[in-house]
Write a structure and sequence with these properties.
Blueprint lengths: L2 H22 L5 H12 L21 H5 L7 H7 L8 E2 L15 E8 L4 E2 L4 E7 L4 E6 L3 E8 L2 E5 L2 E5 L4 E4 L5 E4 L5 E8 L8 E2 L6
Parallel strand pairs: 2-3
Antiparallel strand pairs: 1-2, 2-4, 4-11, 5-10, 5-12, 6-9, 6-11, 7-8, 7-10
Length: 212
């Protein structure tokens, strides 16, 4: 897909994500307040400085299975992701781990808006996380406040040592510097994420925390 043909689909995806965030703001709790803050930061999209081109990251092999692992609450989001899924900037941002060989081929992130994304922003990150089945995304930490929305895949989410099983349609909030991890099971995980707060530039690091 060329830049001229995929940009309308990217904008549709961003709009669909905004709709799901808007629906969550109805409940005035910590998650709802963060959803509202992200929406405010997304009111005016930053200028696009990069391109969306075909990805070669190995994790994209899990996309088709992910599209089958949603539910009725996320079907419209998955329909919006599908046309541009292979044109997103999928990458793995950690150094390789000797204790987890091949992890860099099973986890990837596609930042659509952010400091290193085609839509450049120093205030907000918006993107997708993709994790293959039966994969542990080890404990990690970052200064940014993170809001996840599960599009596909029922997955164990661990934060501050507490594990919960979250299905598609669930929002998960990670406060700044909270150590968290994810463990997929039979299905891959596909989720929307946002970063906000004072520092959205410092990359996530496997615990213990270290700056980029």
């Amino acid at each position: 897909m060329s830049m001229s043909s995929n940009l309308p689909f990217i904008l549709k995806l961003i709009g669909t994500i905004q709709t799901h965030l808007q629906q969550r703001t109805v409940t005035d709790d910590a998650v709802g307040k963060e959803a509202a803050r992200v929406l405010e930061l997304l009111e005016s999209l930053p200028l696009i400085e990069g391109t969306f081109s075909r990805s070669s990251h190995p994790s994209t092999r899990y996309l088709n299975a992910a599209f089958e692992a949603g539910n009725a609450s996320t079907v419209n989001l998955l329909d919006a992701i599908r046309p541009v899924a292979l044109d997103l900037p999928w990458r793995y941002s950690y150094a390789k781990r000797d204790d987890a060989p091949g992890l860099e081929d099973r986890i990837a992130f596609a930042e659509i808006i952010g400091p290193e994304a085609p839509f450049k922003s120093q205030k907000i990150c918006l993107g997708l996380t993709l994790i293959g089945p039966n994969t542990l995304y080890p404990s990690h930490v970052h200064p940014a406040i993170e809001l996840y929305y599960v599009a596909a895949g029922t997955t164990s989410w661990i934060a501050s040592g507490v594990s919960t099983l979250n299905c598609p349609g669930t929002f998960i909030l990670h406060h700044s510097m909270v150590v968290h991890a994810m463990q997929t099971h039979l299905e891959p995980l596909l989720a929307v994420y946002s970063w906000s707060g004072e520092d959205v530039k410092t990359l996530s690091a496997y615990a213990p925390f270290r700056s980029r």
